[in-house]
Each structure stands twice: as structure tokens, then as C-alpha cells.
Specification:
The structure holds 2 protein chains of 2 kinds. By secondary structure, chain A is an all-alpha fold. Chain A is built from 6 helices and 2 strands; from the N terminus they run ββαααααα. Chain A has a single domain, classed as Four Helix Bundle (Hemerythrin (Met), subunit A), CATH 1.20.120. Helices cover 70% and strands 3% of the residues of chain A. A two-stranded antiparallel ribbon of chain A has the order 1-2. In chain A, strand 1 and strand 2 form a beta hairpin. By secondary structure, chain B is mostly helical. Chain B has a domain of 82 residues. Classes of the chains: A mainly alpha, B mainly alpha. At the A-B interface, helix 1, helix 3, helix 5 and helix 6 of A face helix 1, helix 2 and helix 3 of B.
Chain lengths: 228, 121
């Protein structure tokens, strides 16, 4: 259903009339607003990292032991996949800004594929952990039974599944946003002149990458030198 | 800021340079626990992560030259760092181990009136 565009007019104190700019026309406002949203994300994940550091200071050896059992090859591969996806997203935005819309769409498709690969690798990793009896709800991560892991490890794995799960959820949201962006580009709503939506989704993707930059060493690397 | 006046070829080279830097730091992440400062892995890893985050913020998220948004980010991150700074040293003086759900019950010493007993007994 389409509506005829009716401009909203505001009158300034000196009596002059101005057309009110929509969010598409207010690049800086759109960017600033999105940054404020991203800061709420930073504080949410920041609180989780704070909890993690707190637990680590209480149960250092358990954390190192648990970390040494995570699959660093798969975690490291995912790190590189996200790195490349941040590049494709950035190059897509560059192409949009220079008027190469087709090239921009290709780069968004490439980013979506890399995001799906990331989720696939994460699924393989979680399945591997499930098969080793380490998963939320299984005996190993419940205290007070014969299969229970040491207390610090239960905390470690609880945080690991929560944070990587939440991060994965952000990846899924990112894929949804990129599909929506492609639809908006196809509909001519996102163009070289009005690309704030593309800019903000690229920012979101960088944030998802940024969070992983800390998730990876916190979980996978702290036990890397322990000999397992 | 006019965001459309850009030189694609020049900007693209910048993106690839950043990718190279990030890959180099990722390699460092992998070799550090086996090659140097092995006893400080946690601290070194977080410092490498912080360096990567700074590069992403400056070059991929276009924070370079952004004054208002830059200070907004600095303020928000400072709040998180402030809480870290206050809470982490306090962990060393944790007073509520008996009631806690985050400390192992196996090693807690409980004071039963005149006797002090361990749960391990």
C-alpha cells in the first residue's frame, strides 16, 4: 500500500517555512541515534564481561581448565570468518557511496553467506560439546551429582553458552537486517544519496564483530597455554 | 559531513590494510600463549583484543574525526571501566561466601557457634 508523499512544514521564529527532514535526509541524526542504541549493547555485553572477569578472579584454575577444552580451531576459524565479513560489509558500503549499487548488493550477499558459515561452525561446535556431555541442562553442568564438573567450570560453561548464544542471536538479527536492506535497495529506498540505513547496518555488523573480538580471547585463549 | 565524496580505490586500500593489521593481531592472539608472557595470558589477550577493538572503532566504524559521537563512546566505555575498577579489587575482600551461589560450597568454612567446620569434612 503506497501513500502520496506530503511534506511536513515547520515554521521558524522569523516566520520562514522549512520542510521537515525525514530520517533518510538527516544522516548525522540517524547515525547519532544508532550509536546511542549501540552503546546500550556495549553496556549489556560490558556487564556480562564484568561478571565473567569476576568469576574468573574467583575460579582461575577452573576457568583455565575449561577454556583449554574448547575447540580453538573452530573458534579461530569463526574469528577469521567474522573479520572477512566485516571487510565485505565495509566494501559494500563504499560501493554504495560511489554509486555501484550492484556491487554493494553483491558484498551484502557475501556478508550474509559468511554470517551463515559462522552460525554453521558455531552449531558444529555446540554439537561437539553436547556429545561430550557439556551443555546447558546436562548433568555435567549441574552441581551435586557424580558427573558434575568443578564449580568454576560450571560457571564458565554457563557464561560461555549464554554469551556465545546471545552473540549468535545478534548474528541472526544481522542476517535479517541485511535481507531487509537488500529489499530496501531493490525498492529504491536506499540509494547512493540516502544510504543511512546501509551505514547503520554496517555499524551494527562491526559491533557484532567487536563483541567477538573480546568473546574469543576470554573463552578460547585463556587456557591455550595450559597443555591440553 | 558529505559522505558521498569518496575515492573508492583509495578507501579500499585502507580497508585491506586494516584487515591485514587485524589478521596480524589475530595471529598474535594464537601464538602468544605458547611463545611469550605465558604467565600473563589473560592480561595480554585482553590487551590484544582492546587494540583490535580500537582499530575497528577508528577505521571500520568511522570514529576517526567524530568528536561528539567519539566522546559519547568514551563516556559509555568509561562507565563500564569504572565499574570494572571498583568491583574487581573488591573481589579480594568477598565477605558473603556462605550465602553465595558463585563460590564453590566445597571449600567454604562455616562458623557453627563455637566450632568452625568445613563442608569437606
Amino acid at each position: 500500500m503506497s501513500h502520496e508523499y506530503v511534506p511536513e512544514i515547520a515554521t521558524s521564529r522569523d516566520g520562514k517555512q522549512h520542510e521537515v527532514q525525514g530520517w533518510q535526509g538527516d544522516f548525522y541524526g540517524g547515525k547519532l541515534g544508532f550509536w546511542l542504541f549501540m552503546l546500550t549493547e556495549v553496556m549489556m555485553f560490558g556487564a556480562m564481561f564484568l561478571v565473567l572477569t569476576y568469576y574468573y578472579s574467583l575460579h582461575q584454575q577452573d576457568f583455565i581448565d575449561a577454556s583449554s577444552h574448547l575447540n580453538r580451531l573452530l573458534g579461530g576459524t569463526n574469528t577469521v570468518v567474522l573479520l572477512i565479513s566485516a571487510l565485505t560489509m565495509g566494501l559494500g558500503l563504499l560501493r554504495m557511496r560511489t554509486g555501484d549499487v550492484k556491487g554493494a548488493k553483491l558484498m551484502i550477499y557475501a556478508t550474509i553467506i559468511l554470517a551463515i558459515i559462522f552460525l554453521g561452525i558455531k552449531a558444529v561446535e555446540w554439537r561437539e560439546e553436547f556429545e561430550h556431555g557439556v551443555f546447558l541442562g546436562l548433568d555435567a553442568l549441574q552441581s551435586g551429582n557424580e558427573h558434575s564438573r568443578p564449580f568454576g567450570q560450571i560457571l564458565f560453561y554457563g557464561m560461555y553458552f549464554t554469551m556465545t548464544g546471545l552473540h549468535g542471536f545478534h548474528i541472526i538479527i544481522g542476517i535479517g537486517l541485511m535481507i531487509w536492506l537488500l529489499k530496501r535497495i531493490n525498492a529504491g529506498k536506499v540509494t547512493t544519496e540516502h544510504h543511512i540505513l546501509h551505514f547503520n547496518i554496517a555499524l551494527y555488523w562491526d559491533l557484532v564483530h567487536l563483541i567477538w573480538v573480546f568473546v574469543f580471547p576470554y573463552y578460547y585463549m585463556i587456557g591455550a597455554g595450559s597443555g591440553h | 559531513m558529505d559522505t558521498n565524496k569518496i575515492d573508492y580505490a583509495k578507501e579500499k586500500v585502507g580497508y585491506y590494510k586494516v584487515l591485514g593489521g587485524l589478521l596480524l593481531l589475530t595471529t598474535l592472539t594464537f601464538i602468544q600463549p605458547h611463545m611469550f608472557l605465558e604467565h600473563y595470558t589473560f592480561t595480554v589477550q585482553i590487551m590484544i583484543g582492546a587494540t583490535k577493538a580500537w582499530i575497528i572503532l577508528m577505521y571500520y566504524m568511522h570514529m576517526k574525526g567524530e568528536t561528539l559521537i567519539g566522546w559519547t563512546v568514551v563516556f559509555a566505555v568509561s562507565l563500564v571501566v569504572f565499574f570494572f575498577t571498583v568491583v574487581i579489587p573488591d573481589v579480594n575482600h568477598f565477605q558473603f561466601k556462605e550465602e553465595s551461589h558463585i563460590t564453590s560450597q566445597a571449600h567454604i568454612e562455616v562458623d557453627y557457634g563455637h566450632h568452625t567446620a568445613s563442608h569437606e569434612e
